[in-house]
Amino acid sequence: MPLCIPIRDMKDTASFAETVLAAQAPVIVTKNGKEALVTMSPEVYEGMRREAARARLYDIVDRGLSDVENGRSQEADVVTARLREKYGL
Fold first, then answer.
1. Do residues 10 and 16 lie in contact, with contact meaning Cβ atoms separated by under 8 Å?
2. CA angle 74, 78, 83 (to 5 degrees)
């Protein structure tokens, strides 16, 4: 469950920083009972960044597999030969 902290708790910056660094998830800061901002430790940020990169990679692989399954691909040696002929390589 995400940790929610009222914005007034940010006044004690040392305590706030300790809370964020100790949290294993993003910390939601609220103002007047509504989400105002989200903060997180570098470790949590790096984990989320890696997870997003992994999701993008899986999407690219899925699209590639779909291209192969639907006949939208060619053998590398055929493409290479065509490019060499076209550009005189």
1. yes
2. 110
